[in-house]
Structure formats: C-alpha cells, structure tokens
Design goal:
By secondary structure, the protein is of the alpha/beta class. The chain has helices at 57-70, 85-100, 114-124, 141-154; strands spanning 16-24, 29-39, 45-55, 77-82, 128-133. The chain starts with 15 loop residues before the first strand and ends in a 20-residue tail after the last helix.
Length: 174
C-alpha cells in the first residue's frame, strides 16, 4: 500500500473512531487539545486532553490527532472525525505534496508546524486512516465534548477572572 495515498487507507472496516478538537484563547495564546478514542466493536472509549501556555489553534488541532494515534498500542484502522479543515485538507491533499517537495510548500517556503506534520506522517506509517470532516459547533456530541475538554485544559493557563485585564474602549467624544 502506498502510505502517501490517504484515500488508500480506507480499505477495510475501521476498528476505532478518533474524535479530535483543538482550541485556543487568542491565536496565538493558551491552547488545548482533546480526543475521544472509541473502539467500534466494544464501545469502550478513552478521553484525553492537554494544553500549552503559548500556541496556535492549528497546532492544537494537530496535537489532538497525534495524541490520539499515539494512544493506540498496535497498528489500527482508524476513522478520524475532525472539524478542522486544516487537518482534513492537510492529510488528504497537502501532506503528500509537501513530502514530495522535501517538506516545502510551493512558493512560500517551509511547511508551518513541520514538527507536528512529520510526527503525524510517522504515525500514518503505522496506522490506516480514513478522515471525515464535520462542521464545528453544530451539536455533534463527541466534537462538542472534545471542545469542552480542550477549553478546560487551556484554562489552567489563564489568570483567575478577577485578575484578567481587558482593554477598555476610549470614551466617546463628539
């Protein structure tokens, strides 16, 4: 199987479903990632989340997928469910081209978040992946749960509400 052809990864029944989400307070700012990993046959699942004090939303979206795939103990057929266009398009369209060009984009230089894309590529060598993109914040239960977990994770890096400062607008003058 050509591991650079992600459409080839859907050649059998998926064993697990991986739901992921990333969130950021500001972009960049404190960010969180979360995943739910569910075994199709047994319904058994795990949830995990984490955060970084200064990051971007795209990094958190990628890290959620990476941490979910890293949680698998053996090569597995995975259906990834993500609300991130960046992740979905990156896996389906951009990754094979970036690799063919030596991890470079067409004219704009090096791939952003290269370290995470390369780690994800390593994991794709181990697992078969089928990607399903869903719209965000539309009531999808697992996506909403991942969002809640990711937001809760990054909140550890926010000051308490009474210590937060907000920029006030200047008074109106005529």
């Amino acid at each position: 199987m050509d591991r650079d052809c992600l459409s080839c990864f859907s050649d059998g029944p998926t064993e697990v479903v991986l739901f992921t989400d990333g969130a950021c307070h500001g972009n960049p700012g404190p960010g969180g990632w979360a995943f739910i990993l569910r075994h199709r046959r047994t319904g058994r699942q795990i949830e995990q989340s984490g955060a970084e004090p200064q990051t971007t939303n795209n990094r958190m979206e990628l890290l959620a997928v990476i941490r979910g795939l890293e949680a698998l103990k053996r090569p597995t057929s995975v259906e990834l469910v993500t609300d991130s266009q960046y992740v979905a398009r990156g896996l389906a369209e951009w990754l094979p081209r970036w690799k063919a060009r030596g991890w470079r984009r067409t004219s704009s230089g090096q791939v952003k978040n290269l370290d995470l894309w390369q780690r994800l590529d390593e994991l794709l060598g181990r697992h078969r992946l089928q990607v399903r993109h869903i719209p965000s914040h539309t009531g999808h239960p697992e996506n909403e749960r991942c969002d809640q977990l990711a937001v809760a994770a990054y909140k550890q890096f926010l000051p308490p509400p009474e210590k937060r400062t907000f920029q006030k607008e200047p008074p109106f003058s005529s």
